[in-house]
Design goal:
Radius of gyration: 25 Å
Protein name: Recombinase XerD
Keywords: Cell cycle, Cell division, Chromosome partition, Cytoplasm, DNA integration, DNA recombination, DNA-binding
Strand order of the largest sheet: 3-4-5
Main location: cytoplasm
Strand content: 5-15%
Function: Site-specific tyrosine recombinase, which acts by catalyzing the cutting and rejoining of the recombining DNA molecules.
Order of helices and strands: HHHHHEEHHHHEEEHHHHHH
Family: Belongs to the 'phage' integrase family.
Shape: globular
CATH superfamily of the largest domain: Intergrase catalytic core
CATH architecture of the largest domain: Orthogonal Bundle
Number of domains: 2
């Protein structure tokens, strides 16, 4: 009997199938581009790129009179070679708000536009590298300027208030609402405590299995972005929250087939989804803070606390699973500046004389 696919393997299969759906609409040379990208990108990244390229080809079909009657798959390299920088500037403008084939309105922030333009730049680089095109006009287009965002996280008091709030959330509930809260109480506490106490990504959290938890060493085995396996260690508070959840709730549930080893389950007895965790975090956090808090912001809360305690940016990068420490430095630059300022008072050149 074949061994059932792990959560990560199942996600990869689903992403691969969705990628094939996107590519079935696009020209053959686009498929070749994705084959070339397979060894250097994750399945999630390739899926995002495919979505972005489909948006671009739909834009061409919709706005270019010579391509109106062509299917997306019929748009040729010659058609692409006719495009000028101004066409890509028009695409940037188009991305701010456009209609999908099913008449939904889609919008993009500067970050979203920059991502799609970056994808196009990479795609055209590939076509030039394969000598299918002689130049890359996307490189002549200015990319949207991305404003630096301040790190949003919970303060120490807000963290304590959040955990207290979840523990006592049921005090004012009755009936069905109280029943559902009690049913998921220990799960919710364990999830939020784990996010705050380890800084794992929400995608890593939902992929956890019971067999990934090692109470002997207080560590969890997670699959990082890119597929790398790593042990993330946790402290006593996380240990207690996980044990309470397992002993008082999880062990009493019979999951649906295929979800037997999933650590965190939904109300339907299936592995909990990223969307469900995001909604749960938003519900609780909105009661204790005016900030818009997501699971990623809880990750930032952990990263900030760890950096303030240790001052070791390389440790923070390693624990958070950042492939490039410069990513970590960029996020915590303000905190680094605070530490440098405090260093100015650490060295005294001459002791002040006591005048009394």
């Amino acid at each position: 009997m074949a061994k059932p696919a792990t959560y990560r393997e199942q996600v990869k299969i689903e992403n691969t199938m969705r990628l094939r759906e996107f590519l079935s609409e696009l020209p053959p040379y686009v498929k070749e581009y994705f084959r070339a990208k397979e060894t250097t990108t994750s399945d999630k990244t390739r899926l995002s790129y495919a979505y972005d390229l489909r948006v671009f080809f739909r834009f061409l079909q919709e706005t270019n009179p010579t391509l109106h009657d062509k299917a997306l798959s019929e748009i040729s390299i010659k058609d692409l070679s006719m495009l000028k920088p101004v066409d890509f500037e028009e695409f940037e403008e188009y991305l701010k708000a456009y209609k999908t084939p099913d008449n939904r309105t889609e919008t993009n922030s500067r970050t979203g536009i920059a991502r799609k333009m970056s994808c196009l730049r990479s795609f055209y680089d590939y076509l030039c590298k394969r000598e299918l095109l002689t130049s890359n006009p996307v490189r002549l287009v200015d990319m949207p300027k991305i404003k630096e965002k301040a790190i949003i996280q919970l303060d120490t008091d807000e963290v304590a208030a959040l955990l207290d709030y979840i523990e006592n959330y049921g005090n004012d509930l009755t009936g069905v609402k109280l029943y559902h809260y009690q049913k998921q109480k220990y799960r919710d506490i364990a999830i939020v405590t784990l996010l705050l106490g380890t800084g794992v990504r929400v995608s890593e959290l939902v992929g956890l299995n019971i067999s990934d938890v090692d109470f002997k060493n207080n560590g969890i085995r997670i699959i990082r972005k890119g597929g790398n396996e790593m042990i993330v260690y946790f402290g006593e508070e996380v240990e207690k929250a996980l044990k309470d959840y397992l002993e008082l709730q999880r062990n009493g549930i019979t999951p649906l087939s295929g979800h037997e080893d999933a650590l965190f389950l939904s109300g339907q007895k299936k592995r909990i989804s990223v969307d469900a965790v995001e909604k749960m975090v938003k519900k609780y956090c909105s009661a204790v803070s005016v900030k818009t808090i997501t699971p990623h912001k809880l990750r930032s809360t952990y990263g900030t606390a760890l950096y303030r305690e240790t001052g070791d940016i390389y440790l923070v990068a390693d624990v958070l699973g950042h492939a490039d420490v410069n990513t970590t430095k960029k996020h915590y630059a303000k905190l680094s500046d605070e530490r440098r300022r405090s260093a100015s008072k650490a060295v005294v050149l001459r002791e002040k004389l006591d005048t009394q």
